[in-house]
Design a protein that fits this description.
Low-confidence stretches: none
Strand order of the largest sheet: 3-2-4-1-5
Shape: globular
Mean pLDDT: 93
Radius of gyration: 15 Å
Helix content: 25-40%
Structural class: alpha/beta
Distance between the termini: 6 Å
Number of strands: 5
Strand content: 15-25%
Length: 148
Amino acid sequence: MLDQFIHPTGPHIFSIGYEKRTLSDFLTILQKNHIKRILDVRRYPCSKYAWATYPELKMILNQNNIDYLHFREFSPSLACRRKFQATKDWNGFSKEFKAYLGSIKPAVEVWGKNVQDGDCLLCLEQNDRQCHRSLLYPYIPYSIILLL
């Protein structure tokens, strides 16, 4: 939804997926919502979209006054991801990824406390219902706004 502009009250962060978006649409959504920092939670910051691949994405965001940080450690392992892609078993995937997050809980909790009001989590999937970034939300002490 390109015209989406949120008027949040209170501390919040955003969550966005770049799937099926043009670079122009992606940047427009970020700018309309005054995003100042992207937190990329993909394991590998690469994509079939050239603009969504590191370091290109970081350069584009920086040119638009948006900081870029990559947090590989808060993404599922390649084996876990591949299993989910093959089986589409969200419950199994969630259980495995939550167990992983539990094993690094102190690091995830520190990260969550350092997320800033107005930051935006980034991954591929537009809809976060079956994206690992939704499993990071409980560690963040802010409301989450999904940018569709």
